[in-house]
Amino acid sequence: MRAVILAGTLSTGLGDRALAAKAPPVERMVLDNGVVLLVIPQHDLPMVVVSALVDGGSRLDPDGKEGLASLTASLLPEGTAKRTAEEIHETVDFLGAKLSAAAGDDYSAVTLMTLEKDLPASLDLLVDVLRNPAFPKDEFGRKKEEALGGIEADEQDPGAIASREFRKKLFGKGPYRAPTAGWADSVKALTANDVAAFYRATYHPNRTIVVVSGDITPKAMLALANQLLGDWKAADAPLDGPPPKPLTQKDVVRIDRDLTQANLIWGHLGTTREDPDWYALQVMNYILGGGGFSSRMMSSIRTEAGLAYSVFSYFSGGKLPGSFQVTLQTKSASTREALDRLEREVARIREQPVSDDELSQAKKYLTGSFPMRFDSNGDMVSFYSQVEYFHLGLDYPERYEGLIESVTKDDIQRVATKYLHPEQAILVVVGDQEKIDLENAPGAAGGTKSADDKATKPANAAKTPDDKAAKSAKAADDETTTSGDAPKAAEDKPTKRP
Predict the structure, then answer these.
(1) Per-residue DSSP letter, 457
(2) pLDDT value, residue 239
(3) Burial class (CB within 10 angstroms; exposed 0-12, middle 13-18, buried 19+) of 446
(4) What integer pLDDT is reported at residue 3 of this predicted model?
(5) The pTM is what?
(6) Partners of 312 in the β-ladder
(7) If pLDDT is split at 50, 70 and 90, which confidence band does 248 have?
(8) H/E element holding 86?
(9) Which residues share a beta bridge with 262?
């Protein structure tokens, strides 16, 4: 077993408004069977948060079984070899704890919040759920119906529809091709045997990261971990499918819905979270479309032209290349003008240097918001789980400000040229196609209609402006992503990335 303790201080870069935030001390230990254990002592409150992250997200769903990782994770707390689902929920209630399990694109996680005095009993429950799930048939049927209900509900969400079709077109048959929940047809076909087989293939100690934050010492936590996890046997890991190849030409996917405005996603293949250019990309994207009202796209499309309530861009970065995408909603008749402005901003940041002020403001915001990742035990557990998963190093908090501050104007133009590919862009448009002007839109002549593009529009489809993207616009500092995001959040919404 190996251990290292690292701590550091974060400077927010906010000048006379500067705040100091200390990165907590973290001890990293590795059990003999490969379980990585990170312990973050925080003794202010008698609470402990534990997350067991397993490298078994939906990117590993077999072809035709999309949604399998998600269904498997959802069933973990619904019965084990020695506890029924009812007994698990009664124990959680008795302890005053919270226990949940969910899957993301890259990984799945079981998360626990409990009082320090109840940690041994609560942790025993978490480990039982993680190591000994029984996948009872009645619970399988119930959770499967819940999953299908969620997929059906997404049919009333234009943003979810656009994201689903964007994934299909961009990733083809490769990883990340489907929402974590899967597709209706694929989920309907799943069996309890599929769930058990997926669990056996992916849930192993050498694929597991346990992060603990709260009123606990590393020594005490190591003893508990060895007691509860030490005899878990390591196994070979499943292989990822091949990453998708970039498209060779633009394309358009139209989905007909009875809406008052068009819901758009414009984008293409992106990169991985471990790409050394990730930090330059975050600064570039903040200036382009990720910085809310500070971004060029928002300024052009909303402030100057009044064409959209919100426009937002982001890179999703996971274990494998994710996407770059821009989301916006606009009136049907103004779709063409909004797209023209979007593409002009992409061209401008590729061809012209950004200003000193734009660069300074982007860096100031990204570094200044970084300490928010340490607001609570839950935030720290999520942050360090991903730091370990993406091999960023426990000194990452100390290095982050330097990584951002080292980005130059030349770097911005270099990564814009390298990673923005308008010639490969996919455009997904959800709305009333009779009223949406796509004349001369990129790829319009060869555009395709999704199989989901129905001649009869759902009578109960939303008819009010979809302002959900506005809620995510403020999240630019979170280095937003959808691939491999924290399982507690829907994978199709931008979420925090370390």
Answers:
(1) P
(2) 73
(3) exposed
(4) 44
(5) 0.86
(6) 327
(7) confident
(8) helix 85-95
(9) 330
